[in-house]
Specification:
40% helix; 8 helices; alpha+beta; two-stranded antiparallel sheet; 7-stranded antiparallel sheet
């Protein structure tokens, strides 16, 4: 591996950690500033942080990360913001579960890999505040490297202006890298976050991309950074606009049913979940995306 790639991997890993720190601080500030309206009298939520560790089959170190989860807050019912940097070799099942680039030439004889990224899922107390997902990542093998990620909004009670704002921020940040990026990756999100057995999307979309390698690491990393930077300005104004709204039992019921869709998608279709479990990562970290409560009818 070249010194240049070693430096690039270190920079990517450091960026995902810095983004995690910024988001965690912003979400705890949201909790602290919920001083009137629903649940304002409760204690503000705080993240519980724990290290995750991964070992290879021979017991050697295979990386890990930080799992940060807040439960039972004033605004967030459950939110996880995880970062990890893992490495080792990919078994056959893990290769089959890869989110991109199946059948890479040379992988059979040299299945080493390295991956780093951030993954976030937020399930909200207030049914009027949308659930949200975001992740960005870098993947390396001796034979290829690429970036992936995205963000999508999952309201149970949709407000058209919220959907428009979320998409506008993603488009604004993606536009720095070409006018074709946002429409291409919006269409990919619409396809990726679709639930075939329900014949519907799990939410109102966003952007999604994988196997992104335009041949210029710096440009591709810059795009991935901007997808991450778009998240807080896309999501926090929606929280601010809706967190003071009262809700009914019917609203809560709609929220729990909608969460069932989220759980179904992540357990049945999500390739990141499958890859994390197949590569031996901490199952609690991999499955932190699941809602604390859900129901089916």
């Amino acid at each position: 591996m070249s010194d240049e790639m070693l430096d690039q991997k270190a920079r990517a890993s450091a960026w995902f950690r810095a983004l995690r720190d910024e988001i965690v601080a912003a979400f705890e500030d949201v909790e602290s500033t919920q001083v009137e309206g629903p649940l304002a009298g409760d204690e503000p939520g705080r993240f519980e942080v724990s290290e995750t560790k991964r070992t290879s089959e021979d017991g050697s170190d295979a990386g890990g990360g930080l799992m940060s989860v807040m439960r039972g807050g004033r605004v967030f019912e459950k939110v996880g913001v995880n970062v990890s940097t893992v490495y080792g070799v990919l078994g056959e099942k893990a290769q089959a579960a890869m989110a991109a680039r199946k059948g890479i030439p040379g992988m059979a004889s040299d299945p080493r890999f390295w991956a780093s990224g951030i993954s976030l899922v937020a399930h909200m107390q207030n049914p009027h505040v949308p659930a949200v997902h975001m992740n960005t990542r870098m993947f390396w093998t001796p034979h290829a490297w690429w970036f992936g990620g995205g963000a999508d909004l999952n309201p149970c009670l949709e407000y058209a202006e919220d959907t428009a704002h979320f998409h506008a921020e993603l488009e604004r940040h993606c536009a720095r890298h070409g006018d074709e990026i946002y429409p291409r990756y919006k269409a990919w999100a619409d396809e990726y976050f679709y639930i075939p057995h329900r014949k519907r999307a799990r939410g109102v979309g966003g952007v999604f991309y994988d196997d992104h390698n335009a041949g210029d690491w710096e440009a591709d990393f810059a795009l991935t950074q901007d997808v991450g930077r778009a998240f807080l300005p896309a999501f926090l104004p929606l929280v601010e606009a809706r967190r003071g709204t009262g809700w009914t039992d019917a609203d809560r019921d709609a929220q729990l049913v909608h969460r069932g869709l989220y759980a179904e998608y992540n357990l049945v279709y999500d390739r990141g979940t499958k890859f994390g479990l197949e590569t031996g990562h901490d199952p609690d970290a991999v499955l932190m995306s699941l809602p604390p409560l859900a129901k089916w009818i």
